[in-house]
Fold:
Amino acid sequence: MPNPVLSLRNVTIYQDNTAILKEVNLEVNHGEFLYIIGKTGSGKSSFMKTLYADLKLREGEGIFVEYDLARLKDRDIPYLRRKIGIVFQDFKLLPDRSITDNLLFVLKATGWKDQKDMLEKIHEVLGKVGVNNSSNKMPHQLSGGEQQRVAVARALLNDPEVILADEPTGNLDPQTSVEVMQLLREINQNGKTIIMATHDYALLMKFPSKTLKVEDGTLFEVVQRTV
Structure:
């Protein structure tokens, strides 16, 4: 039997003291590509935040990249996050630093020391996402699609087991959205597990994969053609 990268049992997800999602039962195996869909405000982001420990798991059992989410200590959160990469809708690049310095900041924050090793890693991940020629530019000098490619590169820095992508195409035009999706699918085909929250049903039709829907406080699998 495969060892799942994510296992949730009878989980209820809370935002403050309000139960957003109830009775969540889910297993995600290594190498899967999973969509989480639903309307804005349905609980997709709360689900993702629980996985990367921005929201505490208060009810149920959850194991993610071998960490027990219900018993996770504050001191363990940085170690959990080193095993995952996170891509946000709004890129979250530091505006006052070059692309190289944005990525150096992440590497230093996660324990890297050697400057040569760090620069080699940055060159590697920027090459993977096709923006190596932008390493010395500032974020505002890049298009939205290029900024999101940098955000994907940042998520790859520590060779994570899983990438969590929370509406990664939400601020992009349709053509650029397709390009970013092609990049994510390529990364997935190279062995990375990807869990992606989205409300862009057009992308689901173009890049079909296992899909779960958040609706009325529940999370359930949907057949692709009925989305």
The helical segments are 44-51, 77-82, 99-109, 115-129, 144-156, 174-189, 201-206.
